User: What shape does this take?
Amino acid sequence: MTPWWKKAVVYQIYPKSFQDSNGDGIGDLQGIISRLDYLAKLGIDAIWLSPVYQSPGVDNGYDISDYRAINPQFGTMADMDELIKEAAKRKIKIVMDLVVNHTSDQHEWFVEARKSQDNPYRDYYIWRDQPNDLKSAFSGSAWKYDEASGQYYLHLFAPQQPDLNWTNPHVRQEVYDMMNYWIDKGIGGFRMDVIELIGKDPDKEITANGPMLHPYLQEMNRATFGDKDLMTVGETWGATPKIAEEYSDPARHELSMVFQFENQSLDQQPGKSKWDLKPLDLGELKQVLIKWQTEIDFDHAWNSLFWENHDIPRVISRWGNDTKYRVASAKMFAIALHLMHGTPYIFNGEELGMTNYPVKSIAELNDVESINMYHERLAQGDKAEDLIHAINVKGRDNARRPMQWNNTPNAGFTEGKPWLAVNPNYHEINAEAALADPDSIFYTYQKLIKLRHENPIVVDGDFEEVPASDQVLAYYRILGDEKWLVVANMGESEAAFTMPDDLGQMLIQNYEAAPQKAGRVVLRPYEAFAGIVL
Ligand code: TEU
Ligand code: CA
Assistant: This one.
């Protein structure tokens, strides 16, 4: 039997930015509950909820100080239970973010651990007398000296996010107990934050894909979700197709699927960081998309399909066009991706074609990654304007702007002062306007979700590339006698394309009168369509 998550479309909510219900300028659980009907209308099956646990908020909740409590800024545990229940009424599952590579430095385990070298919790974290060259993802060394107890601890992210010591069996058992606490509440599964790091060997400077990663995941599977009908998705920046099979071959009893980012490096200079920009080559993007359709065997692995999340910019601003062709390019990205093999994810606001929001100065930013990088590189002699430019192109706050619900002040997100400024284009781009316009991006997403739910070919069909120029992604999905053709001009210029077949019924398109006959055609800017091959 096909598991539910192979047929599902997942919607990611960044709670702080989704909907405020009490005027404090911060999105919250009651806000999400009030928007469940909107999500049901879109048609999604599950919500990936970015962290709502107790947290000091250094990394917006990815620094957890109590895994079994809700951050009061988001509500209470009763609100959380209500969300799970109200979502279930609409056949929507709640997938929790599981952040267990590290905790907050305010977590009671770390508060204890740093008290002395012989504290019983000391070994819950990773302490050394001397640091090595490991770097933090958020700039600087990954080791911080703790004056009071006289050793360095490891933090692959902010210093306020100390890494847990997964070699300690007590740590692993604590995590599994906590996961079972959430499973018992009736959640739909877990999205596992930087899970590829848990098997690390810091002394050898091995972080991702370390030797103990898969043994730990197999142990976790046995101790928690293994015999349950849950979805588990691993955030796996460094996965290759082969590594994807190691995580998600059902016979290995690890996770349901990977969430990999190979396309993220395409617009950065080779060997450098995400901030060292380089223009995207559409041919390379196309090759990466095709690679992840053809180089994994979907009977022995499963992959996620996504353009956006809370760590990456809005796709139309980055690789499409967020002005003249905003609607066409947003629909093109949706059509190109959602008819592929895998489980699609929509990041809140993507279905409205929300755009990046450029800032003029560092004072307008919230994200720890951008702020630390700015100060580090400024000190190294980089120019402020270049750094701000890179942040506007790639920074994480772009996608974290409040949801644009309507045309009232602050886009209907809050009646107070939003924690992060709303993009002023909300007057034009908002959910209310989208729902009133039958041609909106919202309805393209709604239709794509419906196509997936109603047609096994979208879930299970084989993928076959159709020859086309670099900027045109064209493919068949094939199941039994049925064959669909999907064509997407990913570029802003017209593109010649040879239609390989006559199409019968058209399934979806972003321009009137899409090509339907075999032979040479000229695709319009960002034109995309799918139809049934006769
Ligand atoms: O992201 C992991 C991660 O590697 C990113 O921080 C990445 O380095 C950066 O976003 C690239 O721009 C996860 C979460 O999704 C992220 O929000 C957290 O900050 C991070 O883990 C730490 O928990
Ligand atoms: Ca609030």
User: Anything to note?
Assistant: The longest helix spans residues 169-184. Residues 59, 62, 99, 137, 157, 193-194, 235, 237, 274, 310-311, 369, 396 surround 1-O-alpha-D-glucopyranosyl-D-fructose (ligand 1) (CB under 6 Å). The mean pLDDT is 98. The first strand starts at residue 10 and ends at 13.
